[in-house]
Each structure stands twice: as structure tokens, then as C-alpha cells.
Amino acid sequence: MGTFFVEALLAARDRPERREPVKLLVDSGSTYTWVAAALLRTLSVVPTERRRVVTIEGQVAERDAAEVLITFEGRTLHTVCLFGDAGDLDVLGAYTLEGFGLGVDPVQRKLIPALQYGAATTE
């Protein structure tokens, strides 16, 4: 097993025509997608809130967050994205993966369709 990356395009919600490519480490253990704050600011993404997270080192940290447009595998969706500090990795997290209906195949190092669960019954 191992890690792998995917290529995506990011854009501000109100400027979808201006997209920038980014290489993201797929990390289903990360709740959110993280991208360098400098890239997000280049795209005119403005933080709308702050989120508290526990880092891989076990430290509690706060990061700015905003909703962005992310495109990969031919689809574009809105997702929550954290503004990464210097030293933070650019990461594709679980919130975004679930939004796209994707899971991780760690052996073949690729994204795969995931079964989605709902509360509806057949009655």
C-alpha cells in the first residue's frame, strides 16, 4: 500500500472561469481538503470561517476555510477547503471524496466509485 496523488483544478466560487491546477495527496484520513493559502489567494478565494483540526502530529490547529470549486475526473463540485500554512501538504480529504462519491483503493493507488448510503427506505 502507499500514497498517491491526483491532479485537480481549483477555482473561487464566484470566479469559476479562472482555474488553477493543483496536485493533491489523497488522504482519506484527513477530513478536509487543504491547499496552500498562497494559491487560494491567487484565485481570489476569501476565507469565510476558521476550522479547528488535529494535525498528523496530534496538535490542535486552526486554519482559515472557504468553499471552493474543485474539478477532477471530469466533474466539478463545491467543497470546503482549508488554507494551508507553510509546510502543510496539499491534500484531497474525505469530505471532498464523499462529495464526489469516491473511495480509495490503496493497493492499486487510485480512486474508485464508492457505495453511498442514505436514510430512504423501500416502503
Q: How would you sum up this structure in a few lines?
A:
Strands 1, 2, 3, 4, 5, 6 and 7 form a seven-stranded mixed sheet that branches. The chain has a two-stranded antiparallel ribbon with strand order 8-9. With 123 residues, the chain is mainly beta. It has two helices and nine strands, in the order E-E-E-H-E-E-E-E-H-E-E.
Structure explained in plain terms:
- This protein has 123 residues and is mainly beta.
- It is 10% helix and 51% strand.
- The chain is built from 2 helices and 9 strands, in the order βββαββββαββ.
- The protein has helices at residues 37-42, 94-99, and strands spanning 5-12, 15-26, 33-36, 49-54, 60-72, 75-84, 91-92, 102-105, 110-113.
- The strands form 2 sheets. Strands 1, 2, 3, 4, 5, 6 and 7 form a 7-stranded mixed β-sheet that branches. It has a two-stranded antiparallel sheet with strand order 8-9.
- Strand 5 and strand 6 form a beta hairpin.
- The longest helix is centred in the N-terminal third of the chain and has 6 residues, at 37-42.
- The radius of gyration is 15 Å and the shape is globular.
- The protein starts with a strand and ends in a 10-residue tail after the last strand.
- The relative contact order is 0.24.
- The mean pLDDT is 94.
Give a quick set of tags describing it:
7-stranded mixed beta sheet; mainly beta; 2 helices; 123 residues; two-stranded antiparallel ribbon
Q: How are the SSEs placed, and which strands pair?
A:
Layout: E1 5-12, E2 15-26, E3 33-36, H1 37-42, E4 49-54, E5 60-72, E6 75-84, E7 91-92, H2 94-99, E8 102-105, E9 110-113
